C-alpha cells in the first residue's frame, strides 16, 4: 500500500490476498517512479489507481511505463450502472467515486494512496483519493460486485479493456502527435488567407460573408449568430427551420453556396486555426487530452484540442520525425461487422468476409448499389423509418434476420423505458423522470392527442438510442481491445537504438514505436522507419486478436486499411 503524507513522503505497504499488511517501506514521493519501475521489472503488476491521468502522467514524465492497470473511477462508472450487477447499492452509496472519467486534469499525486495486494496469481497496486482504507474499500466493493455479477468473465474483460484504454490515452497525450506546424500554417493561409490581426477575420471569410449579404440583400446580416442568420434567411424568402448544413443544402438560393463555404471556413478557423496551433502544438507535437469512456456508449471524448474532430484538410500536418514513419490503420465498416458478430448472423458475416461489406451486400442481391447498402445499414443502426434508409431497411430485415433482431430488440426495450447492454456488459442508463412523466400522462384516459403524439415520439427517440447503443458500445469495446493489445505488442518490440531518437515524444517513447492517435476505428503509430513494417504487422495482429477475444470463432473479419508513410494522408 502506498499513501502520500503531508510532507510528500510515500508509505509502501504490501498486502496479502486477504488485504492484510505484510510489510511497509517509506520513501520520498520523488522516488515513486523508481519504485514503480522496479516493480514493473520484477513482477509486471496490475496497478489499481484512482484515475490514470492523475498518476500515470508523472510516471511517464520520468520515463516510466506500466503494462496494466485497474482504473477505479472508470471501473466504478461501469459497475454502478451495469445490469449484470444486480445489487449496486454499495457502489451507488460510494458517491465520492462518481466524478466523471477524465474530469481531473493530469497533476502530480497529492493526498492520494496506492496499495498493492499479493495473491497466488498477480500483484496488484492501486492508487485512490483520500485515505488508504477508503481505497481498499472501493477496490473490495468492485471485486465483490464483479464476483456476484451474472457474468464475471465479461465484466472483468470490459474493465481490463477500459483501464488499458486509460493508459493508452495518457500515453498518446504525453507522446503527442507528430505535427508539422509549417504545413499547418500553409494550409490555413491557402484556405483562409493570411493570419488576420486580433479581432479581425481572415480575408477569405470576409469575402464570402460579403457575398452572402449581397445575395440576401441584407448588408447587416450576422452570419455568426444562428438566430439572427435565421431571421435574415427567412426575410430573403428562404424557408428553413435552422441554419444547419443539412437543411441549407436542400435550398435553392444564390446565398446558400457562399454561406456553406463560409460555415466550413469559420469552423476551421475557430476550431483549428492559428490560435489552436499556438495553444495545442509545441516542439512539433500536438498533445490532445483524451477522455476514455467519455461518451455513454463507451466511446472516447476529448476535453481539449478536439482530437476526435480533426478535419481531413489538416491530415497533411501529421508528419513523422526524420527517420520515422507513421503507420495509419482504420477498420472498414466496424459497427455493422460488430453487429454481425454479436448476432451470429452468418449471412451478414459472409457479405463482408475479405471484402467491402457494402459491396458484399450488393453482391448478395439485397440492394442495387453500394450507396443503397450503406443507407440501409445506417438506417438499421440508427432507426431510420423515412426516406431511402427507411425504404431499404425492410430488405435487410429479410436477408439478415439475426442481425436485425438484435437491434430491433434493443429498440423495443428502449421504447418501453428499459435498459440495454453491450456485448461485454456496459449498460445504458434508463430514461429520466421527464420521459417517464410524458409516458405516464399519455397513458391516462384523459390524455390529449398532442400528449399521445409526444409520448410516441419520445419513445421512438429512446428506442433509436438503445438500438444504436448496443452496437456502437460493442464497437467501442472491440476498439479498446485492439489498442490494448497493440500497445503491449509495441512495448515489447526492441528499442531502435540506431535510429534517430524522437526526443519530442518523451523519454519513454523516443526509441520505440508508440501509439500517437486514436479515433473510434482508426489508430496511428509513430515508428522508426526500420520498424515500420513490424509495427504494421502488430496493428494487423492486434485487430485479429481483438476479434477473437470478444467473439471467439465467429466468422467475422475486421479488415484494415494499413498505410506506412511520412504523412498521415490517405492515398
From TrEMBL:
Residues 311-531 form the DNA-directed DNA polymerase family A palm domain. The keyword Transferase does not apply. Residues 421-459 are annotated as: Disordered. It catalyses: DNA(n) + a 2'-deoxyribonucleoside 5'-triphosphate = DNA(n+1) + diphosphate. Keywords: DNA replication, Exonuclease, Hydrolase, Nuclease. GO terms for molecular function: DNA binding; DNA-directed DNA polymerase activity; exonuclease activity. SMART domains: POLAc. It comes from the Bacteria. Its EC number is 2.7.7.7. It is an enzyme of class 2 (transferase). InterPro entries: DNA-dir_DNA_pol_A_palm_dom (IPR001098), DNA/RNA_pol_sf (IPR043502), DNA_polymerase_A (IPR002298). CDD domains: DNA_pol_A (cd06444). Coiled coil: none annotated. One of its GO terms (biological process) is DNA-templated DNA replication. The keyword Hydrolase applies. NCBIfam families: PRK14975.1-1. PANTHER family: DNA POLYMERASE I (PTHR10133), DNA POLYMERASE NU (PTHR10133:SF27). This is DNA-directed DNA polymerase. It comes from Candidatus Agrococcus pullicola.
